[in-house]
Amino acid sequence: MSSLSSVSATEFGEEQRHVTMIYTRLDEMRDRERTRLAETWRRTGGTPEARAQRDSAARGHAERLARYDAVESGLCFGRLDPHDGTPLRIGRIGIHDTEDPLLVDWRAPAARPFYVATAVTPYGVARRRHIRTRGRTVVGLDDEVLDPDVAAAAASGTLVGEAALMAALDAHRTGRMRDIVETIQAEQDRVIRSAAGGVLVVQGGPGTGKTAVALHRAAFLLYTHREQFSARGVLIVGPNPTFLRYISQVLPSLAETGVVLATPGDLFPGVDARRAEPEAVAEVKGRAAMVEFLAGAVRDRQRVPAAPIEIVVDRHVLRLDAASCEPARRRARASGRLHNLARPIFADGILDVLAAQVAERIGDDPFWDDPLGEDDAPGERNLLNAADLADIRDDLAADPGVRAVLDELWPVLTPQRFLGDLYATTDHPDLRRAPGGGWTPADVPLLDEAAELLGADDSAARAAAARELRTRLEYAQGVLDITAGSKSYEAEADDEAEIPNIADVMEADMLAERLADRQWRSAAERAAADRSWAYGHVIVDEAQEVSPMAWRMLMRRCPSRSMTVVGDLAQTGAGAGAESWSEVLSPYVADRWRLAELTVSYRTPAEIMAYAGRMIPQVELPRPVRSSGVEPRELTGDLSGLAAIVAAEAGGGSLAVIVGAGRFAEVAAVLPELGQDVEEPAVLLTVTQAKGLEFDHVVLVDPEEIRAGSRRGVNDLYVALTRATQRLTIYRTGPAECAGGTR
Ligand SMILES: Nc1ncnc2c1ncn2[C@@H]1O[C@H](COP(=O)(O)OP(=O)(O)OP(=O)(O)O)[C@@H](O)[C@H]1O
């Protein structure tokens, strides 16, 4: 077992000197970036390409500066003393002094023993030290001697850096999640450093650190595969904007900024899905059956006339009916193209039908079988040739009446128009709604599905891209010609003859590609604006809430299937949420996914966990790592009593009042000062809103109503019971005669 050792004043001083040296080096790095940034901005003018290069260089300097600022607090937090060799300091980023590492990045392989070494498996480490700092001052050192000879060395379940861990867990919550880089536990470290490829599912009860682990894994992957993942971007999906705000500071504090945080409702660029709708409707929209429903609705928009249609073109009355249009529809469908891309085939077929009717009227030769009388040879029945027919088709294609009929029979559709029209006309009772009024989060996967079914007529965009590529190629060729010219001139000096020139190492098309890649927007920004962007890695948090339709959309964003799926099936609240990971994943990766389980709850104290165990004995709970010494209390009273409790708690750490959705309005009326901004000291939330969050003190109103409130009421109650880090109050609103009383 590891043992704590006392630290002498000399050692304290030595540690302070080293920490000061690291900060001095950080200051130098910062100054250098600041100077470079200023120099870059001073460079003005030049070609558009030179300006773009300057912008991109400036962006790089600014990002590095921001990174150095972000790691200021707790820059160096650990030290490993090997049995032989020099000690290693572990910190938020790697810092070198000439050859030697002053500070090893926590993600580097050399830092790993800091998180996983135990007395049983010390990885060559004799001592592990947690360094606590305030500002730049060392305020505490916690040492563990990893001694395999100490008795009872088989202590499994040993907490790594227990003092530092307990200090972190007991700290007040602020409404912003903190990183756990100083106290990552061994089972968490294994998940964080798991290989990037394939789908990794991280299952664990509330408070086991799933979110924390997912975010640190993002930082680890970006560090380990920087090229690959910063070019394609990493997407982190969370259940709602409040949750994303709650976790938004973690990656910046780990000096990683190039990550896209989004809810599933944010993933259709150009659509702001804020409209609310009943859970039952969202559930219907999330079902896998919507795939067929939408596909059927697209086919329904590929029509033939139910009754004959007449179109007047140049005084000719032309007719279309089901029989004459059916071959065009068959041919368009058989092409296998998506709806919008198959429309030209359908239109061609219809124009053929109409052109034939016009030709029959104006080109018919009544004397075709006896053109000059007597025994003259028969001619063509129709006087028009192929060119005449083509002219007729062109005229028809431009005719507004014909175009209107084509739009009626096979309209070119955007996903928004298609879905809005479908909702307005469907006889599905849950889905029918008037046009307009915006989109809900559950509409977004349907818009995405519709986009896949409809296809974009991107011929104009492709032509523009081809034009741009030509321009880039010409420009690149120009650059190569100029540098090749300057080479032959400079090569007169012998010593420069060996210096390779850009024209020697790069073809024009390669250079053109580089120029295209070097965009001024970051990969994360470009990804967020592009529906068809393929991310390098996708992390889905609270993944149990994701509906089958939303999974389809997420999988489209990650064709490489390099994914981390984080959740707890026992907490599923959404009607369309998951009950089994294999059910969720098998359509995409069959059984090729791996499971990691987290078993220890770092949030919920033993007293609250035991209480939860009594309330919901059917749920298997994670093992709490600490106790608060405070038993949950049960109170009964009316709603004004609730207001009194909230008022009495003011200033005692973060507080959340959690209610079932059905009681929200009523409770909000008596607690008007409470909003939903989790950075405020006290908030009022529904269970769904509280998912993934935590507070020092939770007041849970009428738990039995939450349990009875939905098909997944037990899961909701489980979520609500496990949000507190210190204290839990159960408040039951009893009959009037109990008003204000407690029991
Ligand atoms: N190794 C650790 N060191 C310090 N704090 C930790 C550690 N692991 C988890 N925590 C803390 O425990 C709390 C719960 O973590 P987190 O929110 O990641 O759990 P979760 O499994 O996602 O919970 P839920 O299922 O409720 O969403 C957070 O405050 C987190 O910072």
From TrEMBL:
Highest taxon of source: Bacteria
Pfam families, sorted: UvrD_C_2
Domain UvrD-like helicase ATP-binding residues, every copy: 183-628
PROSITE patterns documented for this protein: UVRD_HELICASE_ATP_BIND (PS51198)
Keywords: ATP-binding, Helicase, Hydrolase, Nucleotide-binding
A molecular-function term among this protein's GO annotations: ATP binding
Annotated GO biological process: double-strand break repair via homologous recombination; replication fork processing
Binding site for ATP: G204, G205, P206, G207, T208, G209, K210, T211
PANTHER family: F-BOX DNA HELICASE 1, UVRD / RECB / PCRA DNA HELICASE FAMILY MEMBER
Protein name: DNA helicase IV
